[in-house]
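Summary for the funding panel

The consortium committed to producing paired sequence-structure records for every protein in the target list. Below we show the first two records in order, beginning with the earlier of the two.
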Amino acid sequence: MDGDLNNKKQVKAKKMMLWFGIISMSMTFAGLTSAYVVSKSRPDWLSEYALPQIFLYSTIIIIISSFTFHFAKTAIKNNNRSLANSLMLVTLILGALFVYMQFAGFDQIIEDGYHFTGAASNVRMSFVYVLVVAHLAHILGGLIVLLVVIYNHFRKKYTASNMLGLELGLNFWHFVDALWVYLFLFLYFFK
């Protein structure tokens, strides 16, 4: 009985730690986007530049990855390991494709003549770079989490009754995906 109680306490503590992390990351991005809003009133603000189209495509890719990861969890619950294998690998590929597309978006911004620093920089593009790079750091963390989940899945650690690591990884993945959707919409509509 004590072992079961300790296990429940550990599960609750791990979930709370994830939520504290998510809340602190949310506050960081709230601060960054608030600084963007305040800076928008500057006379040198670049308002007529539209984000490269590839950022929209990367947004679609990351949304699809949330679905594939979610359905991988469902497949494990239904004891369909081969489908879960495929869906987790697809999620990993989509996450890597998202990162590639973000860098391609940066290349397009540079080709359009805007840089992070120096004479060819401006405040808005500097914010775009900071927001996207900060998000990419979290996506890279999400990819590492996903690799750990895939590794544990291949070790047959997850079952319908034991999915804590997978659920924590899935929740973090959903968070960074939702965070990107927020950032994309913010940057797209709030020029």
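The next record, for a separate protein in the list, is shown here:
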Amino acid sequence: MSGGSYYVPASSKWPILASLALGVMMTGTGMVLVHGRGTPMMAAGLVGVLAVMTLWFRDVIRESRRGLYDAQMDRSFRWGMGWFIFSEVMFFAAFFGTLFYVRNFAIPWLDGEGAKGVAALLWPDFTASWPLMNPPDSSIAGPVETFSPWQLPLVNTLILVSSSITLTVAHEGLKEGYRSTTRNWLACTVLLGLCFITIQGVEYYEAYTHYGITLQAGIYGATFFILTGFHGLHVIIGTIILAVMLGRVLRGHFAAGDHFGFEAAAWYWHFVDAVWIGLFLFVYVF
């Protein structure tokens, strides 16, 4: 299977199975959003996606442990991970762009400002402000109160910044061959990820029960949950990835000069941490 300078993988059933599982999941999701039913299909698709990912990654790990990957394959993995993270950057850029557009263009237009200020004719009594506590359409109830950035959001910021530090220490320990250092600091990183997820769950509970911040609370509620919710999903995925890396470290996987799986997980986690800094500043502070 390995010859010359490039590794050619054997034919695999996983890509087509992943596509089918993803198709089922998205079809079910669309049915839930449009018709209010289709949850079993969505759940079955999600289980299928997770199962395929688990088995596919298992095969990749086995191939790596058998020494089937050479330097060219390592470069391919690095380019692949790099482009994946770039796609995630564009993903969040679209959401941040939406927030910027709404705050700086759409809402002022409704108050008569700018080139499209004629939109103020729709709701002549509307006054532009952010956070938008009183949506122009009176049938939509805005949030009652917004979160102070210096409470739970600040705690979560400190947690994620700390997790980047602990992960860096774990990575340096792996590169130097100190496996106990890698194990302990990586375990701390996973724990910090779980703490972040828990605190964000508490924040969402408070948002719905006490602050009136819901998906139906106008554009503020929508942008709040889109940005923080998708980021929270990335934290959950990143925590799972790091937990898998921890399991591999405990099983003796990785070497000082051969550990791209660990390195890719670190790239992803640092990216997630960087996105949160932007969220903290533009969703909570400004």
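Regarding this second record: The mean pLDDT is 92. Residues 71-110 form the longest helix (40 residues).
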